[in-house]
Amino acid sequence: MRISVSSDMDEPVARLILAELARRGHEVRAHGALRPGADPQWAVCSEAAAREVAEGTADQAVVCCWTGTGASIAANKVPGVRAALCTDAVTADGARRWNDANVLALSLRLTSAPVLKEILDAWFAGEPSQDAEDRQNVARVGRLDAARRDS
Questions:
Q1: Residue 25 has what DSSP assignment?
Q2: Catalytic residue among 45, 64, 65, 86, which?
């Protein structure tokens, strides 16, 4: 899987994300503080990673900032992106299952190495629900994106 990763700070957990994704066999593209010469501002690098998902050059993305909130907000401004701020494995599983999230947002402050691995395990094991109500909700979010593009 091709995964874009962004972080506004070159923190140990951000480096661990790159290493863990590569160890799992994913093709990783770094943005922000993780790529020399790139703009490290959270809004800029989160948008860049999310845009790759929206354009299809990445299958998913992981966006990070100190709290994860700014990164998730910026990513969610890109039409077609459903970013979820996850602080634990249960939330990551639910984000994939019920929301068909395609961008994982993480807090550099709160995410430890063991929790990161649990979150990634749940995220990659999660499959989007085929329940009609869940699919209707995801489709509605898609229509909100389309309305924003058309306005």
A1: T
A2: 65
Residues 6+ apart with CB under 8 A from 43: 70, 74
Once rounded to an integer, what is the mean pLDDT over residues 41-48? 98
**List of E strands, 1-151:** 2-7, 27-32, 60-65, 83-85, 103-107
Q: What is the pLDDT of residue 106?
A: 98
* Gap between the Cα atoms of 99 and 96, Å rounded: 6
42 and 8 Cβ atoms separated by less than 8 Å: yes
Count other C-beta atoms under 10 Å from residue 110's C-beta: 13
| 31 closest CA partner among 65, 68, 80, 55 | 65
- pLDDT digit string, tens, across residues 80-116: 999 999 999 999 999 999 999 999 999 999 999 999 9
Residue 65: active-site member: yes
Report the alpha-carbon angle 47-48-54, nearest 5. 80
Q: Distance (Å, rounded) from C-alpha 96 to C-alpha 93?
A: 5
